[in-house]
C-alpha cells in the first residue's frame, strides 16, 4: 500500500498541472480569481459613489458655513446702510472667499441686485438663483447654472436689529471643482482596489498551490478513481493498518487489522484504551504514540510484527499509523534458522577455542567449556589414562581418567576431575567407546545399563535433575582416545537426534587437537628425558669455585642450551655455557654431542682457543655428514663460551665462539662485562678464536648465561644486559644460588620464550701454605734432594703415609725430565682435594705409557706412576709441558688452607629444574 501512494508522490507537479486544466486545483484557482475581481470592482464603484456623495455634502456644508459666517460678520449690516455698499463689501468678500476656499461670495439686496461678485462686471446685476426662501428667513441651497458655470450655492438672509431681512449673502462652489475632488481621490481608490486584488489573488494562488500539492493536480474523476483504488488496496492487502488520532481514538482500521486483532465492527472512533480484545502490550504501544520497528506482539495465538510511525512529521495532523504483519509462521522458521545459526557459531567457536595449546588436559578442558551452556548443562571428558602420557589408548573403556568437568553449577554429583573410571560394558559410554559411534540417551531414568555402573551415584545424578545424555567418542586417525559426555538437566528439553550429529561434529573437531597434544606430549617427554640425560644432574666436587646454576626450558619445549663445570688437573676448573639455536629433539641431541665433545677435548687440557677450534672442526664434520641425509638439518647457530679458572694464580682464561661476554661481579659490588673478543659461531670455520686472560680477585663472581636470559621480543639486547647489571650490582656477599634466583626474578618473572642457562661461580684462592714449589737443576743427583724436600712437606701437611708413593712418582717424573727434557725444570706440590704433583720442563715432547718386555732395561716408570696414582697426564704450556699426577688423600683430613670454605657445599639438586 505504501508503494501505491508513493506512485503519486513521484509524479512531477509540472506534468500534472500541464496535462489537465480541468483539475480541481485549476478550477478552484479560476473561481477564486474571478470572485476577487468582482469584489474589487464593486468595492471601487461603491467607494467612488460614497466619495462623490461625501464631496457634495462637504460642498453644501462649506457653502452654508461661509454664507452664514459672512452674513453675521460685523460691519456687513452697516455697509448695507451706506450709500455705496459695493465699495465696502467687495474687498471684504474677495478676501473672505479666498480664505474660505469657495468660488464666490455674493452680497445682494432684497431684490436680488448684487453688491459684490468675483467678476466685477456682474455687480449691479440680478442674482441667478432662488431668493424667496431666504427672504423668508431660511437658508436655501441649490445647484444652478450661474456666471461661473454649474454651481452649488447656499443663500442666507442678513437681518437688522429688528429681525427684518435687509439683504442676502450667497456663497458656493463650482460643480467642476467638486468633481475634481472626486477625480483626485479616484487614483487612491483604484490603487487600493488593485492592491486588494493583488493580495487576494496572491492568497488565492497560495491556496491553489497548496490544494494542487495535496491533490497532485488531479482532476475530480481522477481523485474519485484514486480513492476508489485506495479503499480497494487498503482493505485487500495482507497487512493490517491502524490510524490512531492524537487523543488516542482509532480513526481507521482496515479489514486485515480487524481480522488480526479481532476488532468489533464499530471500532472506528472509539478510544484504543477501551478495546478489551487488544493485548496489553499492543494497547500500550498504540496509545503511547512512540515509534516501533518490527516489534513482536501477541494477538491471541498469533505473533504480530508491529511498525508504528507518527503522522505529523510533514505537518499533518497529530497521530500515528501502525502496520501489523502476521509473523507466526515466519517466527517458527526464524527460530529454526536461529538454532542452525547458533550451532554453526558453536562449531566455529570450537574451531577457534579448542586446541590453543599442545596440552592434553587444557584441550579437554577447552572442549568442555565451549559447550557449556550453549549446548549442554554439564560436560565431562574422559580420556584413556595412557593418552595422558602420550601413549596409545587401550581397546576397552577401562582405565579412563576424568580430565575435564564443566557445568552451569559446581555442586553436581558427577565424577570429579582426576578420577580413574572403569565403565561397564552395559553403559552407553562403553558401547560408544567400543563402536566408535555416539550414543544418545534421551531419558536416563530408563537406562538400566547406565544405572548398573554406580547405583548410588546414578541415583544422585537423577535426583539432581540431570535427565539426558549424549556420549561421543573422541576419535582421531581411527583410534578412540576417550569419550566426551554431554548432560542436560531440568528445565531444558532432552537431546534429540539432530543434536546427536552436532555433538559428534563438535567432538570430532576437538579429537584432532587432543591427538596432536598427545603426540606432542610423547615427543616432549622423549625430548625432556633426552635433555635431562645430557645436562649435568649434579656439579662435580672441586675447590676452586662456589657454583650456582639454573636451567629453564622454553614454553615451546626443550632446546639446545647447556652448561657444564669440568674439574681440570692442578685444581683448575673449566666453565662452559653453550647454545644451539632451535627447539626439539634435534637441538637437544646436537647439544648432547657438543657437550660430550667439550668434555672429551677438556681431558687434553687444551687452552680455550684450541679447544673451541677442535669443537668447530667437529661441528663442520657433523654438517658434512648430515648434508646428504633427507633431513639435512645440520647445526645452525651454535655458540659456546669456554673458561678455565686457576685458583693458584687467580687467572681466568676464556674464549668465545659467538657467545655473549660473561659478567663479572667484583668484591666491591660493581659489575662489568669482560672485554672478550667474540669469535664466529661454531661450524663456520676459517676464523681463529682468541683467548683472553683475566686476573680475578678472590670472591669475584663470574656470570655465564645464554641469550634467552636477556633478550626477547619485548626488549633489545642492550636493555637486557643493563637489567642483568642492575640485578647483580650491589650484592657482593650474596651466594651464587641467591644471585641466580635474584637474576631470574628480575629478568624473567614469567616462563621464558627461549631456553635459559645461567651459571654463576664465585672464585676461591688456594693459600700459599697449600702449595710447595721447587726449581730442579739439570743434574740426576738433584733427585734425592727433591725426595727429601717432598717428604718434609708431606710431614708438615700431615700426609706422611703418602710419602713412599709420592717419592716413587716424583723420582720417576723428575728423572725423566732431567734425562729427556730441558731446562727449566720445576716441581710443584698442591694440596687440594687430592695431592697433586706437577713436574714442568722446557720440552714439548710428551712421554707415552707402554709395556716393557722382560729383558728391557727401561719403559716401566710411567707404568708404575699410572698404577700408584689416581690419575696422571700431560698438558702443554707456552714454555713447554707439565706432567702431573694425582693421589687420593686419606679419608679424614683437615683443610686449613681453603678460603671461602663455606661455599664447598654442593648446590641444591633441584636447582636445574627450576
TrEMBL record:
InterPro entries for this protein: Bact_Sigma-Reg (IPR052016), GAF (IPR003018), GAF-like_dom_sf (IPR029016), HATPase_C_sf (IPR036890), HATPase_dom (IPR003594), PAS (IPR000014), PAS-like_dom_sf (IPR035965), PPM-type-like_dom_sf (IPR036457)
Location within or outside the cell: Cell membrane
Key words of the record: ATP-binding, Cell membrane, Hydrolase, Kinase, Membrane, Nucleotide-binding, Phosphoprotein, Transferase, Transmembrane, Transmembrane helix, Two-component regulatory system
Membrane topology according to the record: Multi-pass membrane protein
Transmembrane regions listed in the UniProt entry: 186-208
PPM-type phosphatase domain sequence ranges: 545-763
Domain GAF: 382-524
Annotated SUPFAM superfamilies: ATPase domain of HSP90 chaperone/DNA topoisomerase II/histidine kinase (SSF55874), GAF domain-like (SSF55781), PP2C-like (SSF81606), PYP-like sensor domain (PAS domain) (SSF55785), Sensory domain-like (SSF103190)
Pfam families to which the protein is assigned, alphabetical: GAF, HATPase_c_2, sCache_3_2, SpoIIE
Principal subcellular localization: membrane
PANTHER family per the UniProt record, alphabetical: STAGE II SPORULATION PROTEIN E (PTHR43156:SF2), STAGE II SPORULATION PROTEIN E-RELATED (PTHR43156)
Protein name: SpoIIE family protein phosphatase
Organism listed in the record: Streptomyces lutosisoli
